[in-house]
Write a structure and sequence with these properties.
elongated, alpha/beta, 15% strand, disordered N terminus, single chain, six-stranded parallel beta sheet
Length: 343
Amino acid sequence: MVMNNILRFVGCLCLVALLAMTMGCGDNKGLRRVAVGFANSSASWQRNGETIRNTLQAEGYVVDLAFADSADEQKKQLAEMIDTEPGCLVIGAVDSTALKDTLREAKEKNIPVIAYDRLVMDTDAVSYYASWDNEAVGEAMGQYIEAKLNLKSGAGGYNIEIFAGDPADNNAHLFYDGAMKILRPYIDNGQLICPTLETSFEQTATKDWNPQNAKQRMTRIYNDHYSEGAPLDAVLAPNDNVANAIITALDEAGYAQGTPLITGQDGDATAITNIKAGKQTFTIYKNPADLAGKCVRMIKAVVEGTQPDINDVTTYNNGQIVVPAYLCVPFIVDENNLDMIKP
């Protein structure tokens, strides 16, 4: 009897030890594991992903980080990450509209999802959104053009061409909407003239944010409307890569009617060079450390079971739900304050 009791006691101890080991592994795979799946479309995505991973790892988290060149590759990566049941899944989408089926399992497994910079569309699986105030970015672009061309005072008519971003990126729509909120009235009343008549998002979109697509379109526009000496006064460019493509197209075409006002966004090194050379008017700088740092704090709050800081609960409807968001604030950089961007 005594021996049986001892064996039962030892058996219980072994079971407790086994459960403890299992719980420890569960914590490592669950609450302390974070999965980050980002697009691989630029060096900034890679820097941001590595910053998030390195910061969390220094605090004892296990972080899976993957970069994808295509929507299909990202869906495969995310499915594998979801299988590990992380405590939080962070997504910088290649295609914001392509992930609803992939994220269905994340919702079924109660995995919190944070959309990073690009809102993931058409799914109720997104818990939070960390980004910039993207419509305000577009408004700032429009307001800068408005001020530089003295449009409020009635000046005009100035020739302008409109470029938008990738249709698959929800942010591109927000930039466009914000800018056109300011510029559309001046187009309608003739102070701004668009010789191409291409002003809708669909007409002006730059598929895949590919600079070559923007360059080809600008070359066509130049040949059709500006090669006979008509001035191009302003170009709304949604980011620095597109702005640089437009500058290159104009240079190669031999445009010599003065430097148009050209917008931009991201604070890329090429943009700084172009601004110094007087070829690009300004860029809107989003300090990557600000957004990455904010996302890290959101991840930690989610994993620890607390409410992350949110400053927008009305704007970001992804077609299924309004996603609670935290929006960081970018700023305009032109020739007067270039030192604000640190290399």
